[in-house]
Design a protein that fits this description.
This protein is α/β, with parallel strands linked by helices. About 45% of the residues lie in helices and about 15% in strands. The protein has three domains: about 1-50, 434 Repressor (Amino-terminal Domain) (Orthogonal Bundle); about 65-165 and about 300-325, Response regulator (Rossmann fold), CATH 3.40.50.2300; about 170-295, Response regulator (Rossmann fold), CATH 3.40.50.2300. The chain has twelve helices and twelve strands. Helix 1 (about 10-15) crosses helix 3 (about 35-50), helix 8 runs parallel beside helix 9 and helix 10 (about 230-240) crosses helix 11. InterPro entries: HTH_LacI, LacI/GalR-like_sensor, Lambda_DNA-bd_dom_sf, Peripla_BP_I.
Length: about 325
């Protein structure tokens, strides 16, 4: 097709694919309503013509911008970063874009400024990503004026809020039960900062699994943060007690890495003398020494679940208001 110097239009795509422009529109807006072979032909034509949807024209016609707001506290830790990326990927897969606002407090003026920013850009809804309580009140304020979903592990749905998250108590139970099944009897836990919902859920699951096994749940120490340095220092504290634990469940993989280093410096062999299990399954966990047994979080699925809840809420008052996903254990050599 000869190019005219203007961007290709929907009509150009239709001619190229040998379909009507209504079919092209359906592929863009309701792809499941189009036969697979036809949809593939239209999508191939879009790629070959480098067709890009005109979002401004779409917004004028449909009163929809295809834009989702994301509120985050801006934590650079592995979990929040992966969840933020998962939301962006899920939105892109559904034909939406995201606008991110970092909010570090829930003061009314901050929330109002965030809402004004999003509404001025025509967002169709907001996902609030928060591992700590401070943004819950902000989410409730935002939900009074636009659809909101909270992506967190520590909040039951209520009022206008819908909740998506990961069941960290279940993940911690998997890790602890695995250690029990390995014959370990003095299982300690290095918790993350207890201001985080994630850390609280992991403590709950660790304790629940130990109590079910009739074992002591008093061997716990809280790390200052989520780093390997904090894991090292906290493991040193646990090593100072009368009897060394024979297993450690660490609240994330970096804490586990620091704990393993502290044990090795004391001449303790991992896993012969002390087994260690982490949480998150970070990139490279399989290459720790020893390869780290850990709990993998379903980050991508959590982003999709949050977006689905949001879009369902925007289109209808019905549907689920709570989706919690289960992590899974990855057994390696630690």
């Amino acid at each position: 097709m000869a190019m005219t110097g203007r961007p290709p239009s929907m009509v150009d795509v239709a001619k190229h694919a040998g379909v009507s422009h209504q079919t092209v529109s359906r592929v863009l807006n309701s792809p499941d309503a189009v036969r697979a072979d036809t949809r593939e032909r239209v999508e191939r034509s879009m790629r070959e013509l480098s067709y890009r949807r005109n979002s401004q024209a779409r917004a004028l016609k449909t009163r929809r911008t295809g834009l989702i707001g994301v509120v985050s506290q801006g934590y650079a830790d592995f979990g929040p970063t992966q969840l933020t990326l998962s939301i962006e990927g899920a939105a892109r897969d559904r034909g939406y874009a995201t606008a991110l606002s970092v909010v570090r407090d829930a003061r009314p003026q901050t929330v109002e400024a965030t809402l004004d920013f999003f509404l001025s850009h025509g967002v169709e809804g907001i996902i609030v990503l928060t591992p700590v309580p401070v943004l819950i009140e902000a989410a409730e304020q935002l939900a009074a004026r636009t659809p909101v979903v909270v992506l967190t592990s520590g909040l039951e749905p209520g009022g206008e809020l819908r909740v998506a998250g990961i069941d960290h108590a279940h993940g911690a139970e998997l890790a602890t039960r695995h250690l029990v099944e390995q014959g370990r009897r003095r299982i300690a836990h290095i918790a993350g900062p207890m201001t985080w919902f994630d850390a609280q859920g992991r403590v709950e699951g660790w304790r629940r699994a130990l109590r079910e096994a009739g074992m002591d749940d008093s061997r716990m120490a809280e790390a200052e943060d989520w780093t390997a340095e904090a894991g090292f220092a906290t493991m040193e504290e646990l090593c100072a007690v009368e009897e060394l634990p024979d297993a450690v469940f660490a609240s994330n993989d970096f804490i586990a890495l620091g704990a393993i280093r502290a044990l090795e410096q004391r001449g303790v062999d991992v896993p012969r003398d002390v087994s260690v299990v982490g949480y998150d399954d970070v990139d490279g966990a399989a290459f720790f020494r020893p390869p780290l047994t850990t709990v993998a979080q379903p980050f991508r699925e959590a982003g999709r679940a949050a977006l689905t809840l949001l879009l369902d809420q925007a289109e209808s008052a019905s549907g689920r208001d709570r989706v919690f996903l289960e992590p899974h254990l990855v057994v390696r050599g630690s």
